[in-house]
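Lab meeting minutes (informal)
Scribe: AK
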Amino acid sequence: MLTTALNIAFVLVTLAALLSFYRLLKGPDVPDRILALDTLYINAIALLILSGLRLESALYFEAALLIAVMGFVGTVALSKYLLRGDIME
C-alpha cells in the first residue's frame, strides 16, 4: 500500500516539475519565470523527500533542506534584482 502511494506521488510530482519547467522556458514575463523556478525548487524538495521515504535514508532529507535554503536565497536575490536592478546595497 505504501509503495503504491509513493509511486503515485512520484509520478504526480514529476509531472508537476515538468509543467513548471515548461513555464520556466515559455513564461511570458520574468516574474512568471522566477515563480516557475521557485516551484521547481519545491518539486525537487518533494522528490528528495519521497526518495528518502522510499530508500529509508536520512541523507535525502538533509539534501532537501539544503535545496530549500538555496532556493529561498535564490528567489530573494532574483526578486530584489527585478525590483532594484542591483542585488547588493
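Next up, CB showed the second protein from the same session:
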Amino acid sequence: MEQTQSDSKQHQSFRFQEPRRFKVVIYNDDFTTMDFVVRVLTEVFFKSAAEAEALMLQVHKSGSSVVGIYSYDIAHSKVDKATRMARMEGFPLRLAVLPEEE
C-alpha cells in the first residue's frame, strides 16, 4: 500500500488570551471577630500578619475589601474554605467572588 502526502497545508492561527481573573471580596459584619478575620486572612489567603491586620481594619472601616485576585477555581476554593471555617466557629462571615474589571 502506497502512502501519499497531501500538498495542501492547513494553517491555523491561535489567539491565546490570559485567563480571566476574579477578585475575592470580604465583607464586614457585626458578629465576626477581628481576630478571626485576621486568622482567615493568614491561613486561607496567606497574608502576613501585618497585611492581614491592615486588611481587617480596612474591611472594618469601609465595609468590604478585596483580599486577593485569582483564577476562577482558586478564588472559589478559597472562599469555600474561609466560609467553612467561619461556619465551624459560628460566624456569619461573608465573602464573594467577582470578575476583575478589565
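CB comment: The mean pLDDT is 91.
No objections, moving on.
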